[in-house]
Specification:
NAD binding, Rossmann fold, alpha/beta, D-3-phosphoglycerate dehydrogenase, putative, elongated, 13 helices, oxidoreductase activity, acting on the CH-OH group of donors, NAD or NADP as acceptor, 7-stranded parallel sheet, 314 residues, 5-stranded parallel sheet, binds 3-phosphoglyceric acid, NAD(P)-bd_dom_sf, 38% helix, D-isomer_DH_NAD-bd
Length: 314
């Protein structure tokens, strides 16, 4: 009986965990879990006997693959695989898959909730602004941006997207107007980043771009922290007290920013979620978690490797 380990430092909702366990039982797989672990060592030793792993943004480094000697497949219950050493996985002939789109709606809903919270001054009894009719610029036009476009229809927004990997036709089919220059995107009232951390995107969002934003523009990063240059946020906020930044990826220099612009202005201009919260819903835990275990089950049944991300040939 192949053994499956659910390894999540940021645990799934119990309903999702129970669902994964049930699918294991129904498909002749043994189930184990390690949740909320504190050290990599705990993860390494839990994975030593596993043949399959389900993870979130857990760090699977070379040491993990060296130690997990029986491992055949890892499924990232989510989209981003930047926390997984794909070369090490391939070297050990471990298939790595993700579950694209399964948590996209959760991220989109969160972005709109935070946008409204910022525009309404956190509902502090003062008069705020509405987002209806705003222009929305989406960097990347993948699953999360598509969910954003769906939600934006209720707010009568006009959507634009810059995605160098898609054709104009593909972007139009998603319901957005294609743009061919990132600078153009920053003319939108709201710019939301939905790109992975790659050599092209890392530190790509800087002061030059942010300075192009219209009055009261808001930038949102619900993707990856590496994409934003935090020093640029600190610098532009001192010149442009009208701008806002919403981050679901932390803000490491928050003390420096507070010192530069003051606590009251910080509250006005910045929202940072306590942890990466975009995919933290029951629904997305169930969607991504159950999809992951179904992919594992199919792999052990018939060798299916749908959504493999580390190349077929080892
Ligand atoms: C993803 O890449 O799927 C999202 O960033 C969510 O990540 P998480 O499962 O670690 O919250």
């Amino acid at each position: 009986m192949p053994s499956v380990l659910l390894a999540t430092f940021k645990p799934f909702n119990k309903i999702a965990v129970d669902g994964i366990e049930k699918i294991c039982k129904d498909n002749g797989l043994t189930f184990g879990k390690i949740e909320g672990y504190k050290t990599q060592e705990e993860l390494y030793s839990a994975a030593e006997s596993a043949e399959a792993c389900i993870v979130r943004s857990d760090k699977l480094d070379e040491e993990f693959f060296n130690r997990a000697k029986n491992l055949k497949i890892v499924v990232r219950a989510g989209a981003g695989v930047d926390t997984i050493d794909l070369d090490a996985a391939s070297k050990h002939q471990v298939v790595v898959e993700n579950t694209p789109g399964q948590n996209a709606n959760a991220v989109a809903e969160m972005v709109f909730a935070l946008l409204i919270a910022m525009k309404r001054n956190h509902f502090d009894a003062t008069s705020g602004r509405e987002i209806r009719g705003s222009t929305l610029g989406l960097y990347g036009c993948g699953n999360v941006s598509r969910a954003m476009i769906e939600v934006s229809k209720g707010f009568a927004m006009k959507c634009y997207s810059y995605d160098p990997f898609l054709s104009d036709e593909q972007i139009k089919e998603c319901g957005a107007e294609p743009l061919h220059d990132l600078k153009e995107l920053f003319k939108c009232d709201i710019v939301s980043l939905h790109v992975p951390a790659t050599p092209q995107t890392i530190n790509s969002i800087n002061e030059d771009l942010m300075s192009l934003m219209p009055e009261n523009g808001v930038l949102v990063d619900a993707a990856r922290s590496e994409v934003i240059d935090e020093d640029s946020v600190i610098s532009i906020f001192q010149k442009r007290p009208d701008l806002g930044y919403i981050s679901d990826v932390g803000f490491t220099k928050i003390d420096e920013l507070r010192e530069k612009i003051g606590a009251a202005q910080l509250k006005k201009q910045l929202i940072v979620t306590p942890k990466k919260m975009g995919a933290q819903t029951l629904e997305s835990n169930v969607n991504a978690g159950l999809t992951a275990i179904k992919q594992i089950s199919a792999y052990f049944k018939d060798g299916s490797t749908i959504h493999q991300v580390n190349g077929k040939a080892f």
